[in-house]
């Protein structure tokens, strides 16, 4: 859909009194986001459709988003309908490396994850999807084979590595995870953090959020160890550190294969080929460190 059509569609939603100033927001690899003002207040309109290839079902995203609002983690929802979600705009920006270097920044992120894994879970209502990264990887491999992906020669080795990672992680505790902790989904306001974009949320291991947070935001080893110590309220044992590193590898591999599939199915203007290459390189570096 052309930008002018998207903006007109956003302005025509029935939740407005006097909408004005609609403009596109950057970001969003699976949706379109619009900032709009109504009666002196700003809102974010999010247009997105189901993407079963990635396990994205918008009814589920809405349910989890409502739970996150109830837990005080996400901006309030103004309006929802199939394929559209309108939330209040908050004065906050994606976290940066400079933010992470501030005193207690890592501890604050660990506390944020515990609120996701504990508080948000208590507000869920109805069926909840699972998010087991190794099932996702196997399903992505199946899709890539069915669609004739140019990356097919890589897949057997990647799946063999994934099997080793799954064995290294072993049994897990089950929590609701956000599962997409990119910098753009963690917003820093004047005195608090916000989480947005719950389309990949589901029940799985807390290690996926911990590893994804670290890998997506360029944590140093010292920051990773601080994150684990703050989350578990104890220094990481060698066994936990190894399981965590294995899950971090799995997180990077999932992002790589997510992008491989997106190269084929997405019609958004995103350079997925470069994104695939960057994540594959990061995955291989993390796997080499794990096996060193």
From TrEMBL:
Return the Pfam families for the record. Answer: APH
Q: Which SUPFAM superfamilies match?
A: Protein kinase-like (PK-like)
For this chain, one GO molecular function annotation is:
ethanolamine kinase activity
- At the top level, the lineage of the source is Bacteria
Tell me which GO cellular component terms the UniProt record holds: cytoplasm
Domain Aminoglycoside phosphotransferase, which positions?
A: 25-245
- Which GO terms of type biological process are on file? phosphatidylethanolamine biosynthetic process
Residue ranges annotated as transmembrane are none
Extract the InterPro entries matched here.
Aminoglycoside_PTrfase, Kinase-like_dom_sf
The protein's name? Phosphotransferase family protein
Specify the taxonomic lineage.
Bacteria, Pseudomonadati, Pseudomonadota, Alphaproteobacteria, Rhodobacterales
């Amino acid at each position: 859909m052309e930008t002018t059509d998207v903006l007109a569609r956003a302005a025509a939603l029935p939740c407005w009194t006097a909408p004005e100033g609609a403009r596109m927001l950057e970001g969003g690899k699976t949706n379109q986001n619009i900032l709009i003002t109504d009666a002196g207040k700003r809102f974010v309109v999010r247009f997105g459709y189901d993407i079963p290839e990635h396990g994205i079902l918008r009814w589920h995203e809405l349910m989890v988003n409502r739970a996150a609002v109830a837990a005080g983690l996400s901006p309030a929802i103004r309006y929802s309908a199939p394929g559209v979600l309108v939330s209040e705009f908050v004065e906050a920006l994606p976290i940066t490396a400079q933010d992470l270097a501030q005193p207690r920044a890592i501890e604050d992120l660990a506390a944020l994850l515990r609120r996701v894994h504990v508080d948000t879970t208590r507000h869920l209502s109805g069926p909840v999807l699972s998010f087991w990264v190794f099932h996702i990887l196997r399903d992505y491999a199946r899709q890539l084979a069915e669609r004739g992906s140019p990356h097919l020669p890589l897949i057997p080795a990647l799946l063999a590595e994934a099997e080793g990672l799954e064995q290294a992680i072993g049994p897990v505790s089950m929590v609701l995870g956000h599962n997409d902790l990119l910098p753009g989904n963690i917003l820093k306001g004047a005195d608090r953090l916000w989480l947005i974009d719950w389309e990949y949320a589901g029940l799985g291991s807390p290690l996926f959020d911990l590893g994804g947070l670290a890998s997506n935001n360029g944590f140093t080893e010292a920051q990773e160890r601080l994150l684990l110590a703050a989350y578990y309220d104890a220094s990481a044992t060698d066994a936990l550190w190894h399981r965590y590193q294995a899950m971090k590898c799995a997180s990077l591999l999932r992002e790589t294969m997510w992008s491989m599939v997106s190269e084929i199915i997405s019609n958004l203007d995103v350079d997925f080929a470069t994104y695939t290459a960057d994540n594959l390189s990061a995955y291989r570096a993390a796997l080499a460190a794990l096996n060193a």
